[in-house]
Amino acid sequence: MPSSDVEEFRAILASSKNIMIVSGAGLSAASGIATFRGQGGRWRKYDAQVLATLSAWQENQSRVWQFFHYRREEVRPAKPNEGHNILARLCLPSLRKAIAPNATVVTHVTQNIDGLSSEALRTITAELQHSQHSQDASFTTTPSSQPWPDGQIIEMHGNLFDVVCTAHDCDYRAKNMDNPICPALGGTEVIVAEGNVEPVVKRADLPHCPECTQLLRPDVVWFGERPKRIQEILDIANKVDLCLVVGTSSLVQPASKLPERVRAHGGKIAVFNMEAANHSDEADFLFLGSCETELGRVLG
Ligand code: BJW
Ligand code: ZN
């Protein structure tokens, strides 16, 4: 049975050299973002899981773009919560010294596409730079471009504000913060569309590539697609001696398999979740409760 002994956990944390955090939608719940499988895991009459597929996209690009436009507008005003902030502090050497003095690398692999973990890290780093803590001052967070060990946050399922061209012979990919992303989607986020009545946005009015004019899609990872930087993530998991699994149902591969990989070479697993989730009985530690409060209580 997993332990919930805080002192025992802190001793493991203090001796760990390589630490990995694997987070999911529960981490952003306190920021007002709906989880995938909990209450709010539906949009209009659709299951979010069904819309996060290539076949949903192929069947109805207007609907899938409206879903992602809705989620961009949900996330836009959201702010990182205490859970994001605590994990960001764990990623920064000068701020983790007291609790993880032996850690040389802490990598946060998030399944979330809301960008809030990166925002927390950026904000705390800027505060550090401002107060001239030179040890961390060279740290920058350009999330998806930095190789390990410097890129401490990996958004393995992409980011809501990234777009990619769907043309096979075009490699256009960009950050897009436009509000709305195109005029035709503006306002569709407030339409509930009961029954079969839903707005149809013509293909020509959806976001298009500025380089080749083909359709753009959100640069997120749908079922059946290869997660971002997956080889790098697997290499990290092969080396870490402590893995914190935070706010994820651990139902989606390959994220759900990362703890198993850590355990295979003797690494420890600590789960932080509102309730016992998939695989949590195999963990070394289980801290039940909301992660924004439990992370603070347990990590100190
Ligand atoms: C709190 C809390 C609080 C709440 N505090 N806790 C059979 C057929 C077809 C495919 C497969 C198959 N079997 C396996 C597969 C593979 C498939 C898969 O796993 N499917 C399963 C569902 C069966 N996986 C894939 O296809 C992946 N790709 C892949 O495997 O490629 C092959 C490959 C592997 C390795 C190397 C190379 C190649 C891709 C998966 C992509 C997932 N995409 C989505 C959508 C992203 C875009 C979008 O958001 O729209 O990602 S699906 C969705 O699930 C989203 C999430 O990131 C992901 C995980 O969800 P998460 O974060 O765990 O959220 P919830 O809602 O499930 O859980 C929230 C948890 O928080 C709960 O436990 C709560 O209790 C808790 N909680 N409040 C603490 N305050
Ligand atoms: Zn293009």
Automatic annotation (TrEMBL):
The active site is formed by 157 (proton acceptor)
Under Gene Ontology molecular function, one entry of this record is: metal ion binding
The superkingdom of the source organism is Eukaryota
Q: Which locations, inside or outside the cell, does it occupy?
A: Mitochondrion
A single cellular component GO annotation: mitochondrion
Give residue ranges for domain Deacetylase sirtuin-type: 1-300
Residues binding Zn(2+): 165, 170, 209, 212
Q: Which UniProt keywords apply?
A: Metal-binding, Mitochondrion, NAD, Transferase, Zinc
InterPro entries documented for this protein: DHS-like_NAD/FAD-binding_dom (IPR029035), NAD-dep_sirtuin_deacylases (IPR050134), Sirtuin (IPR003000), Sirtuin_cat_small_dom_sf (IPR026591), Ssirtuin_cat_dom (IPR026590)
Q: Identify its protein family.
A: Belongs to the sirtuin family. Class I subfamily.
This one is known as: Deacetylase sirtuin-type domain-containing protein
Its source organism is Tetrapyrgos nigripes
